[in-house]
Amino acid sequence: MTGAAGERVGGRYRLVEAVGRGGMGRVWRGHDEMLDREVAVKEVLLSPDADPALRAELIARTEREARAAARLRHPGIVTVHDVVHHGGVPWIVMEFIAGPSLAQLIRTEGRLGWQRAADLGAEIADALAHAHAAGVVHRDLKPDNVLLAGNRVVITDFGIARLLDATQHLTGTHAVIGTPQFMPPEQLEGRRVEAPADLWALGATLYAAVEGRPPFDGTTLTAVITAVLTRPAPPPAHAGPLAALLDELLAKDAARRPGAQETAGRLRAARAGGPALAAQAAQAAQAAQAEPGAVVRTPTVRAEPAPEPVPSFDAAPTAPAAAPTAPAAPAGRPSRRRVLIGSLAALAAVSGAAAAVRVLGDGGDGHGSPAWTALNGSDSEVTSLAYSPDGKLLAGGGKDGTVKLWDTGTGKVTATLGTKSVGPGEVRKLMFGPDGKTLVAGTTGELPTTRIWDLASAGTIWETSAGTLLAVSPDARTIATMAVDELILWDTVTHARTATASGARGWATSAAFSPDGKSLAIGSGSDKHLRLWTPGSGAQPVVLRTRDLEVESVAFTVDGKYVLSANQGKDGLQRTFADPSAPGTGGLGGGSASLVVVSPDGSTVATVAADASITRLHLWSLAPAAVTATLDLIDEDRFLVIPPPVAFSPDGRKVAAGGDGNRVRVWSLPVPTPRS
């Protein structure tokens, strides 16, 4: 059965006219009769004689992909409103974008100037960065999936390519599903598709925009695939200062492609400064992506410029202390396979005295005591970490949906909780109960789920699929979940809702409870606000800070006086008063950050910063505010779609980090020097 104009779908969506058709669906302009608004309705087209089991699997997968896309809240990504069943198949209801696709624009106007392509590309890259941070890869980015509506540049059809792959089972054919001119080599070869694939597709899309044709083409499908797999892209004639960036985006080696955030920045730099500035950005990126050199296994001090003086809430600012003189850096970028990079020689004194640099030694090769130990035994990449209250266990959630429990004394895995997920199902949030007998875990992906395990029996005490787990209160009695457009608080004992903040769609992307558990700091990656919610007051969340920074992660200081936030921007670590009546924000610097974690004793703050070349863990002191050490988190050249997890031991003497393959690394930290 297929839809027809005038038909009502899902009891409320009236089909008006068909506006497009793709590999597995038809798109209708529709009218939401309940909310009196225009919508786009995607009809999933399935063969009527398809095997029932495979048909059911594709229907279920469509719903899962729609849920994943619905979690993306960004002006550059089409909003998914609803999924309804009609005629035995799912229909995806989205916002209607009244504007042409980039493909239509190229067909009608011909090639675009490099300036216009840079503007469009920067917006697309911003949207991809948001999706990749949420663990979502588009897989089928191309000019047809980029819509233009006034000043908005909007990507549509997130996750649809994965559904298209599944239709091969339904049709019985082995044809390539998608548009091979815009598919990277790893996708054509059937290898795992991750975030760098979207950057290839972006490069091919921008190439088509400035040249009026895709970089790889041919008279047959075989010719196109052969060109993608074996030949370099022809040098673009009209790309201007974008040529070097396009060449990097179309690299056959996925590890050499710049990330989405870097790409957006370089496109804007080219647009603002023209060829000279773009050339400088390209040279810097090429230097950062040089081939790794020999493995260095001696303790090393990284020479970097000292950050600018930053405001202090504890004392009046003073002149910054001079940074120590560092040895000359070797040619090229240090190897990412280096066992450990030592401390960052960059300090800022904001209260009259500079903090001492913590030089953390290497992994142990005769140069002193080992500074870190490896915990092995995970079956997948570790995506979340938490210490038990007594520090004897370290829990690590995996990308496969399981949780490993390590004995911190022996370094051995003592238990595995859960079973491997089918498809995406990363454990992104973990926290032990205050007595160490229970463990709260939040899994995202196909169906966001929160579980509470009894560690004695390894059984599940409670489970709910009511949204993505954002935060757990210090006593583990309350959890906060985000479901579509509601931020919900749940009592983990009675399993009842205790409070709801409505209208949260688009702004609740990270959260943290205050030390007393009475308030919730909420960060947004879309409207870029920081909010505070005190449910007991009966009021909705109030805005603490409005800045042009995407809030990626939030945490309270141990005294509850300030909210720390990791942001995308120059001042990656921000400190904001938690009292709405005493507003005040200080940028502590550090560059873009994607995670912030505070040690239990409050002496150290950890932030994670990632770019196209490396992912680093910065350790901070807050009084004075300064970076005291920097660690390279990843040994292999890989791209992470989520920040590596970080956790402090209860005594603050150890810090653990994942993201390094299927292991966790644990560093011993120096004993903090008491403040005078």
3D architecture notes:
The protein is an alpha+beta fold. Helices cover 19% and strands 30% of the residues. The chain is built from nine helices and 36 strands. It has a six-stranded antiparallel sheet with strand order 1-2-3-4-6-5, with helices on one face. It has a four-stranded antiparallel sheet with strand order 9-36-35-34, with no helix packed on it. It is globular, with a radius of gyration of 25 Å.
Name some characteristics of this structure.
single chain; 676 residues; globular
Strand order of the largest sheet: 1-2-3-4-6-5
* Alpha carbon gap, first and last residue: 77 Å
Number of strands: 36
Average pLDDT, to the nearest integer? 76
What structural category characterises the helix and strand content? alpha+beta
Overall 3D geometry?
globular
Fraction of residues in helices?
A: 10-25%
Oligomer: single chain
Largest sheet: 6 strands, antiparallel
Low-confidence stretches: 161-177, 284-370, 635-641
Number of helices: 9
The whole-angstrom Rg is 25 Å
Task: Tell me the strand percentage band.
Answer: 25-35%
